[in-house]
Amino acid sequence: MKKIVVPVDFSEQSEFALKVAASLAKKHKSEILVLHMLELNQAMATSSEGFHPEQTVFLIKLAEKRFKEFLNKPYLNGVEITPIIKHFKVFSEVNDVAKKNNADMIVMGSHGTDGLKEIFVGSNAERVVRNADIPVLVIKKEHTDFKVEKFLFASGFKEESIEAFRKAKQFAAMLSAELKLVYINTPGDDFLSTSDIQERISKFLKKAGVDTKVNIYNDYSVEKGILNYGDKIGADIIGISTHGRKGLSHFFMGSIGEDIANHSNVPVVTFRI
């Protein structure tokens, strides 16, 4: 892992994310690209009608000063930091910055429990995840030394998720973590018999070219199953796949990822399908 992008808005949650990124950077000798968006609309930044240019310059300088102070933290000592400032609040730019700099991961903070309206940078975490081609690690609490021993990856084990599974496997290896796989079986229309589940998983693993154990856990919903199984095994992080620009039908737009992101006591990482 060579480069990590961390969007910050000076909140406590964004500092939690920065601390985790710093911990990872020290272990993997990575560079952190700290991204701040000034949230000036284009009219304010460019128009001469109704705005005085000196006011815009003042606001930009003030934000830049605050950004510099925010990065003056002891836990960043010894870490290569590249500050990046964007003047507009365009969240596709997070992925653009990541692609331009060949970044490996985005780490961002979240309030979590109050719903996605309170997730980092307003309600725009969904947009960041939707546009992100690389894994997005969502942090809600402070971690003085970010360690991952058990990484739980939940999947429906359909062929479309093979690439996300491979990314999760690489992510676990990078963190030197034990990868735990789980399929959540629920009642109702999505219920599968044990033999049907095993057949699906067997085909998936064969196509993925791996031979590993997948646990089957029964619960009333996928969300509860992932969280309950995570608690049961003491998972340090939960991974899920996302559909990105296809609509995020399984993350942030649907109930599965939303509930997990809001109610999980551990960090959540997404992998683009």
TrEMBL record:
It comes from Maribacter arenosus. It comes from the Bacteria. Residues 1-140, 149-271 form the UspA domain. Belongs to the universal stress protein A family. This is Universal stress protein. Pfam families: Usp. InterPro entries: Rossmann-like_a/b/a_fold, Universal_stress_UspA, UspA.
